[in-house]
Amino acid sequence: MLNIIQNDFEPANTTYLDEDKVNLVVESVIETIKEGLPEEAQTVEVLEFITDRIKERVKEKRIEL
Asked: What percent of the chain has pLDDT over 90?
């Protein structure tokens, strides 16, 4: 189990995630990114660039799930 604290001041704002579930999501995201890229762009550097962009975008927008 992974414990993700969303707010240090409110224990009710703690999210618990199963590590296996997180790993499945990570693999799914990587596969989706690879499917969207030409083979020559499937490098660690490109993946890092894209994940950095994702982090920037997440900070800019509220994610509605």
From this structure: 48
**Bridge partners for 4 per DSSP:** 15
**Cα→Cα distances 2→8, 21, 30, 64, Å:** 16, 10, 20, 22
Helix, strand, coil shares, percent, the chain, to 5: 60, 10, 25
The answer to whether 47 and 30 are in contact (CB under 8 A) is yes
Phi-psi label, residue 49: left if phi above 0, alpha if psi -120 to 50, beta otherwise: alpha
Report the DSSP beta bridge partners of residue 5. Answer: 14
The answer to whether residues 19 and 36 touch, using CB atoms and an 8 Å cutoff, is no
- The reported pTM is 0.67
| Residue that the structure tokens 């490109």 belong to | 46
